[in-house]
Write a structure and sequence with these properties.
Helix content is 31%, strand content 15%. The chain is an alpha/beta fold. It has six helices and seven strands, in the order H-E-E-H-E-H-E-H-H-E-H-E-E.
């Protein structure tokens, strides 16, 4: 990964930390652990979208030109692999290359879609109105430097602190998270984090 990507990733990771509201509790200060569901009065996270469930795709999504698109229509009628990643995390970006190469040789024509669920760092570089344009620029850099062939790369602004944020609606925490869905958008398989891809996975 080039110095430009590393610098961007470092800045965006720092931006993610700075974006937390003042007073946000990340863990218990006594022993460094997160509170249990019982301690906060209920379930901390929703159950992730799993096998047999319809993958919700009605959140705001933008293409590589910064234009709003309907992601559900983009994959409608196609068996697809929808991969959510964070552009600020190098291992997440590097997994895109592995996925694309594997799908090309073993995916049996599967439609691969990459969705960047990170605009926090970009928003700090010019304010909220620049979040999408700046993130799209980052996506073009990633595509060029990682030599990705796909044009199906999208941005889905995510607020991890909001119940309506993409990561909370779908219930994913590890990134990248890849959902393999059938032509009707029903989840067949879910892969969390980097994988040692093998024949038959998709």
């Amino acid at each position: 990964m080039s110095g430009r990507i590393k610098s961007t990733c470092a800045l965006m990771s720092l931006a993610g930390m700075l974006a937390l509201p003042a007073g946000t509790v990340l863990a218990d200060s006594k022993d460094g652990t997160f509170p249990t569901a019982e301690e906060v009065g209920g379930q901390v996270y929703i159950e992730p979208i799993g096998v047999g469930k319809k993958l919700p795709l009605d959140f705001d999504t933008y293409d590589m030109n910064g234009a709003k698109v309907d992601l559900a229509k983009e994959i409608q009628g196609k068996r697809s692999m929808v991969v959510f990643f964070i552009s600020a995390v190098p291992v997440s970006v590097q997994e895109l290359v592995k996925i694309e190469n594997f799908a090309r040789s073993n995916g049996k024509g599967i439609n691969v879609v990459f969705v960047n669920a990170d605009t926090v760092g970009a928003a700090l570089q010019g304010g909220p109105k620049m979040a999408i344009p700046n993130t799209v620029k980052t996506m073009h850099v990633i595509k060029k430097e990682q030599k990705l062939q796909t044009n199906q790369m999208y941005v889905a602004p995510n607020d991890a602190l909001s119940g309506s944020g993409v990561s909370n609606r779908l219930g994913f925490r590890g990134l990248p998270t890849s959902f393999v869905v059938d032509a009707q958008g029903v989840v067949e398989k879910v892969f969390v984090g980097p994988q040692n891809w093998k024949k038959g996975d998709i």
